[in-house]
Amino acid sequence: MDRSTEDGTRLGAHGPLAVAVRQARAERGLTLRAAAEQIGMPFRTLHRIERGHGFDAVHAPALRRWLRAAGEGSSQ
């Protein structure tokens, strides 16, 4: 089931992950390319994840650490 974000971006099956990644990136003031570089994944992979149209299990641990660090930074 597809859903949309406030800006009209259509989200695929991984919508909640897409929203979390976009929010963490926005909180850090990062471009998609800069965030992908920090995470250690290709830009296109992160772009697909943010659109909710793909999840790359190979990069899951790095993405999880990056999201966790974003959460820790926002609570301070």
Automatic annotation (TrEMBL):
InterPro entries: Cro/C1-type_HTH, Lambda_DNA-bd_dom_sf. It comes from the Bacteria. Signal peptide: none annotated. GO terms for molecular function: DNA binding. Residues 21-52 form the HTH cro/C1-type domain. This is Helix-turn-helix transcriptional regulator. It comes from Nocardioides bruguierae.
